[in-house]
Design goal:
The chain has 104 residues and is an alpha+beta fold. It has 3 helices and 4 strands, in the order βαββαβα. It has one domain: 2-Layer Sandwich (Alpha-Beta Plaits). Helix 1 packs antiparallel against helix 2. Belongs to the UPF0045 family. InterPro entries: MTH1187/YkoF-like (IPR029756), Thiamine_BP (IPR002767), UPF0045_domain (IPR051614).
Length: 104
């Protein structure tokens, strides 16, 4: 089984959110998930949906602002073993190039 999530933890504050976002990402280390952070969200990959949701909850709880918004989108492949790299490789194979802008 493969489980993927898009996680976006957004502290709602007038202050700089960098430390809060870093705390959310650091909380993922306590869980059996792989993750990669992008400028807009963090992508998680795991084998167990409960562990993945627990990781998302830990990230949410790690933020100490008075208001926080957390978005979680989950995809579970129950009968297929697939990684995020496999998904990206499939798209790049179809494109015939890297799935990123060619602009400099």
């Amino acid at each position: 089984m493969s489980v993927f999530a898009l996680l976006r933890v957004t502290p709602v504050t007038e202050d700089d959110i960098t430390a809060d976002v870093a705390a959310a990402i650091d909380a993922l280390e306590d869980h059996d998930v792989e993750y990669e952070t992008t400028p807009m969200a963090t992508i998680l990959e795991g084998d167990d949906v409960r562990e993945l949701f627990a990781a998302c909850a830990s990230a949410h709880e790690a933020v100490e602002t008075a208001e926080i918004q957390t978005l979680v989108q989950v995809e579970e492949k129950r009968d297929t073993e697939l990684s995020t790299d496999d998904k990206i490789d499939a798209v790049e194979g179809e494109l015939g190039r890297d799935a990123r802008s060619q602009r400099e």
